[in-house]
User: What shape does this take?
Amino acid sequence: MEEEEEGEFSLKSSASSNTHGVQPLGNLFFSTSSVNSRNTGLRNGSYGGCFKVRDFFSDYLFQSWLCANLEMKPEWLERDNIVRKKGMSVEEFVLNFEELNKPVLLEGCLDNWDALEKWDREYLVKVCDDVRFAVGPVEMKLEDYFRYSDLVREERPLYLFDPKFAEKVPKLGMEYEVPMYFQEDLFSVLGNERPDYRWVIIGPAGSGSSFHIDPNSTSAWNAIIKGSKKWVLFPPDVVPPGVHPSPDGSEVACPVSIIEWFMNFYGATKNWKKRPIECICKAGEVIFVPNGWWHLVINLEESIAITQNYVSRRNLLNVLDFLKRPNASTLVSGTRDRVNLHDKFRSAIESSFPGDIDRLEKSSRGKKRL
Ligand SMILES: O=C(O)CCC(=O)C(=O)O
Assistant: This one.
């Protein structure tokens, strides 16, 4: 790919400003000999009511422009320290990863997915036709979203993240299946009253998810169908640099965009005792995100993925504790009835699996004593 080198930064080949307009030290620079193609309202020349602007510097404009146009640096991508497994049994997964609450990247477990073969732009646009999907604050047809993502050059491109995709287009729901490791999904006892749990995710290179912990203390799996994603994960007891959770955990403020996080904070993690787990997850691969882990994800190319959040016996007690917190009305998400979710879930589990909660509680007390 053709790139323009700007000091230590590599800019995307389609970066909209010419090289003279950018100062890598952090300012937007209009010299008398250069024209910035961004429509700022500022032009060279003092005719037509415009002022001649010389040596105008703005960290604010430059930072946003730079983040929208910066390539991911090779050193942000090279650390790959996740455990990768192919052909592991469910028992091994439970023992070595789910029980220990450790991430793992699973290879080869989507081989029977029709989605892996079929899902590309053309197919999805045809199958989904006029259906509108949730894209940030708006709803869009796929065809329009793809048109937008071809043109977008923003620091935080809109991301398609739809929890009702399988209800809207049932065929999509039939073209993938839950990998064998995640078959136990106890929220299913709530039927239609379960909180949102599955999403189709589509976005261009540079889109993604800034640091967060998944809702309701659930664990998750994320399966890549097309493209690739860079993941950075921190364990529950390590708040990532640049992230400021509120004391009650109800809000996570990550004031910087994903790319700005890499620019300003990623380097600091190199010397941390508890270094993050990192990887690039490619089409056909699945990452297991254990409950409570912070994670940030950036798409390295246009990507299509399915993710599901779930509750197994390994994290049932965590989820029940979470739903019972005094600030459940702000903390619980993905459902309208936030305050009553705990009681509904607990009694549905009691009636489907009598005595299981007691047994899990006893065994957890036993483990704590050891
Ligand atoms: O952008 C992605 O694929 C990651 C999604 C994610 O982090 C989540 O669903 O919690």
About this structure: Residues 356-369 form the longest helix (14 residues). The chain has two domains: 4-69, 74-317.
